[in-house]
Amino acid sequence: MRQLPLAGGVALALLLLLAAPSLVVAGASLTAGGIVQFPPEGLSLRWYGRVLEAREVRDAFLRSLEVATVCTALAVPSGTLAAIALARWRFRAALAIQLYLLLPFTVPLIGSGIGLMLLFGELGLLGRVWPVGIACCVINLPFMIWAVAASVNALDPELERAAASCGAGPVQTFLLVTLPAVAPGILAGALVMFVLALNEFLVSLLLVDARTVTLPVQIYTQIRAVITPDLAAVSTVYVLVAAAAVLLLDRLVGLEIFLRSR
Amino acid sequence: MAVGVAARPTVPRADTAPAVEATGLGRRYGEVWALEEASFRLERGQFLTVLGPSGSGKSTLLKLIAGFERPDRGHVRLFGAEVDAVPPHRRPIGMVFQRLALFPHMTAAGNVAFPLEMRRFDPREIPARVERFLKLVRLEGLGGRRPHELSGGQQQRVAIARALVFEPELLLLDEPLASLDVRLKEEMQLEFRRIQRELGVTTINVTHDQREALVLSDRVIVMAGGRILQEGDPETVWRDPAHPFVARFLGVGTMLRGRAEAGPVLRIGERLLPGRAPNPATAPRPGQPAVAALRAERVRIAPADGADGDGTRLAERLAGRVEDAVFEGERVLYELSVPELAGLRLRAIDRDPGGHARYRPGAPVSVQWSPDDLLLFDASLETGSDP
């Protein structure tokens, strides 16, 4: 760093730029005044208090939790099995699934959102909370599959043969050896799916009605009315939740699982 | 040593049958036969090493015996029972894998207990048994560690304990020592030998390390190109290689090429070199191209003008010249050129410390060996099975 003061400076500037939105919103949430501004006018936690009291925000948060839970509960078994199958066997549907894994980068969310809206409308599922969880799972499942696939690819194939030589049948081998060995990937994928579903906005917007808004939709609705510092407080809570998830992930399985995925 | 009450025999057995009997085993990957017509018998309690370079078919042979793959031809019998339809987890086999394949999420003791749990041993008996086998491999007190908290040698020992703890009738070793450094490797070789003798378990070891094969085994099978070239006890395989490839793989110094004449004699140019054909099946026919193996440590060097060493019958002396002398501590490796044999380079090893560095590069010497040490083979064998 001493030889390259310029590079160090650029790196620092970039880091600040990346952190700026979070820092600004966190700062603004601490204001003692009545309008959103940065730097804040005085310091207080009063807007956090307001958030805790606001019924509609709390209910929306609980609905978002439900969405995230449904999404994760579906994604863990399906994503895990899909990832193991993709990594282990050559089969006819493999190409189709590989293409599906690219969808998050190629199809805009609004496109898949409208598709789901039409489908759920046909099925009479619009305006309820749990179908949003299914929608989030469908859209974000590639992230789950990647996380598990990274673990499966790092798995020594001899491990399963070793289990067989110990007398374990195929089912026992899967439950007692393969699953625990890929558990870090499953955990990482589950956390990512949970956070993504908790944050999901666009698809929720299309699938919910006024009585079943999720938290991001609630925030959006409030912005369209009056912008008050409690929105900054909610946003800050979001940032903290996401940061906690990343820290948890690092503590439990290490972040290199994402660097290993292909 | 008492076998656990619930150690159900997974294969019905006839008590006099050999431990392993392979007949005409073949395995094909696509168009290529990785293993062709392998047949052998292994008696109970013996230690067999399958020796060969990579691609020789030795690992395929092991997979067929373990049941991880099915043969495309032929059959495997274990203790008299045909096992072609028996899946690997129902065969009475313990195995140590090349990369060990310890279960990373279990402790050392958990790894060793796993086969007992899977094979439904009495749960009350398991802890004591795990303890006993950890002790057998000298890991007392380390049972609570995870594999990544153990050294390479200790992991090796856990893998051995895991393979043996349920007292399998057959132990398979898939080059588990290949990745160790020389010192640890030699230590573990002795360890394998000690444990194998202590438990008397029939063992098949696969390796490309000829020294390991000679040190450990009662029987040796040498493979190349998917075929078994020779089977025998280590001394016989070493002394009387049945195939030029076996001779070369077991570290013969020099291969000489010429024509065979009755005797048998190897003719190179005008020179006639009497030798011996260790195996009638691979002996050269008179008048046909022949190849001869000459062990470096059986070649004697004398000063160019000196007398013979002792009274044994030696081939005629040949005049040679020292091209290179490599000092290796307990021995000196000479590279010699012999103008009379079309400039052939041959290797000689001198283990006599008194003679060390007696001959410098460029020194004229006389070279001699006993006809018993010149092993003659049909030269057409070399192209066929060269890996």
Q: What do you see in this structure?
A:
The complex is a heterodimer of chains A (262) and B (387). By secondary structure, chain A is an all-alpha fold. Chain A is 77% helix and 0% strand. Chain A has a domain at 55-225: Orthogonal Bundle (MetI-like fold), CATH 1.10.3720.10. The model of chain A has no long low-confidence stretch (mean pLDDT 84). Chain B has 387 residues and is of the alpha+beta class. Chain B has helices at residues 58-66, 108-118, 126-136, 152-164, 182-199, 210-216, 234-239, 244-249, 380-385; strands spanning 20-29, 32-42, 47-51, 73-78, 81-82, 93-96, 170-174, 202-207, 219-224, 227-232, 254-261, 265-268, 271-274, 289-294, 300-303, 318-327, 332-338, 344-350, 364-368, 374-378. In chain B, helix 2 runs parallel beside helix 4 (152-164) and helix 3 crosses helix 4. The relative contact order of chain B is 0.12. The model of chain B is unreliable at 1-9 (pLDDT under 50). Classes of the chains: A mainly alpha (262), B alpha+beta (387). Chain A binds chain B through residues 156, 158-159, 161-169, 172-173, 176-177, 180-181, 183, and chain B through 66-68, 87-90, 93-95, 97-99, 101-105, 114-115, 118-119, 162-163, 166, 172.
In short:
Chain A is mostly helical and 262 residues long. Chain A contains twelve helices and no strands.
Key traits:
heterodimer, A: 262 residues, mainly alpha, MetI-like fold, globular, B: 387 residues, alpha+beta, Rossmann fold, OB fold (Dihydrolipoamide Acetyltransferase, E2P), 2 domains, six-stranded mixed β-sheet, five-stranded antiparallel β-sheet, 22% helix, disordered N terminus
What layout of secondary structure does this protein have?
The complex is a heterodimer of chains A (about 260) and B (about 375).
Chain A: H1 5-29, H2 46-53, H3 55-88, H4 94-106, H5 109-123, H6 130-153, H7 158-165, H8 170-199, H9 202-207, H10 215-225, H11 229-252, H12 256-260
Chain B: E1 20-29, E2 32-42, E3 47-51, H1 58-66, E4 73-78, E5 81-82, E6 93-96, H2 108-118, H3 126-136, H4 152-164, E7 170-174, H5 182-199, E8 202-207, H6 210-216, E9 219-224, E10 227-232, H7 234-239, H8 244-249, E11 254-261, E12 265-268, E13 271-274, E14 289-294, E15 300-303, E16 318-327, E17 332-338, E18 344-350, E19 364-368, E20 374-378, H9 380-385
Parallel strand pairs in B: 3-8, 3-9, 6-7, 7-8
Antiparallel strand pairs in B: 1-2, 1-4, 4-5, 9-10, 11-12, 11-14, 12-13, 14-20, 15-19, 16-17, 16-19, 17-18
Helix pairs in contact in B: 2-3, 2-4, 3-4
